[in-house]
Amino acid sequence: QQAAGEDRDHGHQYPGFHMRSSRGNPKARPLLCCPIVNPVSSPFLSIRPGSLASVVLTCEHATPRLPFPADLSPEERAVLNDHWGWDIGAWPLTRELARRLKTSAVGGRWSRLLIDLNRRVDEETLIRRHAGGTELSWNRSVPPAEIERRMLAYHAPYHLEIDRLILRRAVRGIRPLLFAVHSFTPVYEGRKRDFEVGVLYDRHQALARKLAGSLRRSGLRVRYNEPYSGKEGLMYSADRHGTHHDLPCLELEVNQGLFAEGHAAERLGRAVADGIREIAPID
């Protein structure tokens, strides 16, 4: 059995991120020193793929990395490291949840600015040409053949792995909760988002309210369907698999400002895991 917290690529341990604080400030948001790495064999990160626990965790925007070497401008590197390139803190939280719940988790290995795993193929933001006012050189010219290649190389295998984890449970009579973990920037387009956690849902309002109640009892400020709404199709991955397999699905959005605090993933992981246990009892 794979140990909790390990990320595997067909048996090769994922080395993780090399982090540094901005300008020596220990409270500053950590940035990646080098987001460009050489290709690896798997387009997704995986934790406990052999688990049969009654929840499947996903993290579509887990890293800011690109699968190829590139001569990036300082502006492009900044965008990759910012909220445009990944959901800061989401993968450490997902890892902590997988550890506490002893369950499976899947994460996107590459930046959402390569291809967004939380978008439909026909959405304009599947592959962004610009982000944060910066033109992205690796997306400057993306013909249909390249979109197809990225879909088959990165997008499709990620979602196939989620289906595989669901099917392993389904054939054994287990109907898991699908739980996607994301994070949001505290300030967007000049507007401050003054809450800590958003619980996104569409068809499963009762589960969302039960989870939110548990999170509030832990001291977190929670809102429903903010900063994005599951009722407006903005939780694509969870809803895609939940609808197809007729399973309950929710998405968690966590304020990235919380991850500036020490041991944030551990503290949040405890609160969120307790809430998940209330709606999807774990053996």
Task: Characterise the protein shown here.
- The structure is a single chain.
- With 283 residues, the chain is an alpha/beta fold.
- It is built from six helices and 15 strands.
- It has helices at 74-81, 90-101, 144-170, 205-217, 236-245, 264-279; strands at 8-9, 12-13, 19-20, 31-32, 44-47, 55-59, 104-108, 130-131, 134-135, 177-184, 187-188, 191-192, 197-200, 222-224, 249-255.
- Strands 5-7-6-10-15-13-14 form a seven-stranded mixed β-sheet, with helices on both faces.
- Strand 1 and strand 2 (12-13) form a beta hairpin.
- Helix 2 packs across helix 6 and helix 4 packs across helix 6.
- The two termini are 17 Å apart.
- Mean pLDDT is 87; it is low at 1-6 and 9-39.
Summarize the structure.
This protein is an alpha/beta fold and 283 residues long. The protein has helices at residues 74-81, 90-101, 144-170, 205-217, 236-245, 264-279; strands at 8-9, 12-13, 19-20, 31-32, 44-47, 55-59, 104-108, 130-131, 134-135, 177-184, 187-188, 191-192, 197-200, 222-224, 249-255.
Order of helices and strands: EEEEEEHHEEEHEEEEHEHEH
Mean pLDDT: 87
**Which percent band covers the strand fraction?**
15-25%
Question: Biggest sheet: strands side by side, in what order?
Answer: 5-7-6-10-15-13-14
Query: Main β-sheet, in a few words?
Result: 7 strands, mixed
SSE-based structural type:
alpha/beta
Radius of gyration over C-alpha positions, nearest whole angstrom: 18 Å
Q: For the terminal residues, how far apart are their CA atoms?
A: 17 Å
Question: Low-confidence runs (pLDDT<50, min 5 residues)?
Answer: 1-6, 9-39
- The tally of helices reads 6
Q: Shape from CA axes?
A: globular
Could you give the count of β-strands? 15
Work out the helicity level: 25-40%
